[in-house]
Amino acid sequence: MSRPQYISRKQELPLKGDSTSIFLQVIISISVFIFAITLSGVLSINTMLYNWNQSILGSLTVQIMPINDVNKERATAQTLAHQDKAIELLQTVKGIIKVTPLSNEQLKELIQPWLGDGVNINNLPIPRIIDVKLAADAEIDFADLAQKLAQASPQASLDNHKLWLSKLIDFADGLKLIASTVLILVILITSGAIFYTTQMSLGLHRHIIEILHIMGAKDTYVAQQYGKRMAWLGFCGGLFGMLLAIPTIFFIGSLAVRIEGGIISDATLGLVDWGIIFSLPIFSMLIAMYTAYYTVKRTLQKML
Amino acid sequence: MAENNNIIEMQNVGIRYDQGPEVLSDIKLSLKKGSFHFLTGKSGAGKTSLLSMMYLAQKPSRGSMSVFGKNINFTNRDNLASLRRRIGVVFQDFRLLDHLSAFDNVALPLRVCGMDEREIRKRVTELLNWVELDAHMQDTPDTLSGGEKQRIAIARAVINRPELLLADEPTGNVDNFIATKLMKLFVELNKLGTTVVIATHSEKLINDFSYPCLHLQNRSLHIIRPNGYSMLREQNNV
């Protein structure tokens, strides 16, 4: 049975016809686009920092500087003797679970990008490297270990990666701070645009709101109508912005992969990160809805 | 008791707009529950201002005013809204919402209260039948005549079975037959307990229905007993 046409209820406030609707949707789309790009940057930096931490966590490197001698064979033998002393000491330290000197083949692999193939390691004054694995609960005094190593083998030096990593982390944190500021600004600009368009619309529909008040409508009744409308605009604008942002994020990602620097290519997005980006239309919907709702409530307080 | 026998009580009430002179001064009024009054006075005498205070669209600039026993100076916004739901208003310029159908306009006070849609459908259809506008339920106000709009405005004011009905020239745009029918509706509502105040210039209406008049003159309110209005007009040579 079809329902009579007059039952289909129209909203008392004709907000669908507001000229500000398109403007607001465009603003929200642009905001969500910028937000998504910036957020993907922040999330990528987080992944990058996590990967860096994981890769160096529980490990350190000992370098044995080569002995300079015109007799290359003797120099190599002396360097290896220093390496053995260092290994001997490291194996006695509590908390160290594995000590592995890098073989000539592994050293060749390390310098291959710079010097090419067919290099005789023994003819080059390059340091020998010992890879050290630490137990998960190891509590090692690195300063003390470095001193003991220097005593056991004056050619040995300890590198626990923290120095260079802390500089990178500072840089990444700086980028995150800038990105977070951009995110906050985007939210403020969007909320401001919603605030002013809502106020403009309230002025435009003032005569209807007065009638609703005289009929006994509470402020929440009017605010809910604005909240619902703005939620829809926020969702549509957010969806459009997000759909524009996704290919852009993929494009930036493909540029990062092309760098092949190891560091930048660590900046990838995980499933959870994508989940956060896909939820942006919901986020913009909630911001639009609550901003409009509270703007209406606040503005109507000034009326009788 | 907070809610006594007086629907509206005004003590030394004055109203002014911005920094202008007082439109109404020292108004003293006790509107008893179930009473019926005409509100008279020349154009610009302050009838609309007095009515707008009564339907809580304006607060007095001075003095104290109680509606349904609640002093409105100490009533919060939500409670003011609840008080307004007990008042039906017919505006001189109808103030219908042009984008809504006649049905939706009449349903407005019920929807504001959150009434069930089935009950709204039943009540609105009945009332629109009664004011002979059942054929225009889907029409928007801009397609209706002045008289039809007025009947929609009256239907909207009474749909909520208000305890206080305020009407500003409710029969100004209708023919005598409809005017008499609408007045009979007001009288019936009054008999059921609704307090009625009707602002009018129509001497015929005042004479046909012998109710007391609230007469505004020189910014003051005077209460005139039934049938005393003609004598007042003669005295003033109006």
Describe this structure in words.
The complex is a heterodimer of chains A (304) and B (238). By secondary structure, chain A is an alpha+beta fold. Helix content of chain A is 67%, strand content 8%. Chain A is elongated and about 100 Å long. Chain A folds into 2 domains: 179 residues, no CATH class; 89 residues, no CATH class. Chain A contains 9 helices and 4 strands; from the N terminus they run αβαβαβαβααααα. Chain B is built from 8 helices and 10 strands. Chain B is 35% helix and 25% strand. The longest helix of chain B is centred in the last third of the chain and has 16 residues. Chain B has a single domain, classed as P-loop containing nucleotide triphosphate hydrolases (Rossmann fold). The mean pLDDT of chain B is 87. Chain B is globular and about 45 Å long. In chain B, helix 3 crosses helix 4 and helix 3 runs parallel beside helix 5. Chain B has 238 residues and is α/β, with parallel strands linked by helices. Classes of the chains: A alpha+beta (304), B alpha/beta (238). Chains A and B meet through helix 6 of A and helix 2 and helix 3 of B.
